């Protein structure tokens, strides 16, 4: 390589470096801006959920119509009337305020014969079987108020264990299997759940009002991280440029 080639290569190097730096800076700023957009979206979603939970309950038919039209029914307050089929309850493995146990999902038979699965609430592990909490096994017609919860399309993650139908232990809320496992026809089952509110049950079990809105909102932290990295990159480049200028003797 001749001296001319070396000179050309030396001139190209700062240009290539500059392009790489600008590209990296653009990516970091774009990621930070995207996280800010996600932050605004998440704040709006959380505010919407809070508004739904604070609203007056609507009849079950209204939520059914919304679900049938493809609307978002999650966390909307609803009221349903029927009789619990206590001998067909299903148990969802859960923890509540640090205690291990189960959420009790009991079919509620409506006036028209259809079935709505109601999450009546939490019972400790030792109270899994109905005979350990007989006072809470309501038999008369009940008016249930709670939050509508959408049916899951499938297993949330491969990390979640398979449901143990034989032991009546569910690790994810498979509505179809819950119904099938107790001999209920799918066509009769309302295609969503209701989480009962905190209205006390006799002898205190199940404990209602267990709905948890678990939507992490770390987008501001992520945005600051990306913007911080962009600032660090600019600082490093500026220091490097300054040192080069200082070391370069005047011509």
From TrEMBL:
It is a multi-pass membrane protein. Pfam families: SURF1. The keyword Cell membrane applies. It is found in: Cell membrane; Membrane. GO terms for cellular component: plasma membrane. Keywords: Cell membrane, Membrane, Transmembrane, Transmembrane helix. The chain crosses the membrane at residues 12-34, 224-242. It comes from the Bacteria. Belongs to the SURF1 family. This is SURF1-like protein. It comes from Rhizobium aethiopicum.
